[in-house]
Amino acid sequence: MKRLLLLLTLTVSLSVFTGAQSPRLTSPETAGPVLRYYPNPATSFITFDFQSSYVQGCTLAIFNFMGQEVYTAKKIASKTTVNLNTDNFKRGLHFYRLYDASGKLLETNRFQVSK
Question: What's the total number of domains in the chain?
């Protein structure tokens, strides 16, 4: 698992330097991303805005650049907003993964924390 996360981290970080688009997975029921996040780069907070009722009971996991999990929110209701204080996050690249209630990966992407 750690090797897979490290590989994902390296792949996404290489895409930052090459200008390639980051990997994004979307649910089959939605035409676009399930999750919208802003501002990017985040300074003191970041907001995750859920766009679809498909994510009822989902889990949001956030990882730092080293692959360490720094935040988890479980059983999130649909059509909700999660505001996260980034004061405890280190400066740099972070990744989020969104899982549905059964544990299936719905979406993954990256965001920057700058202080």
Answer: 1
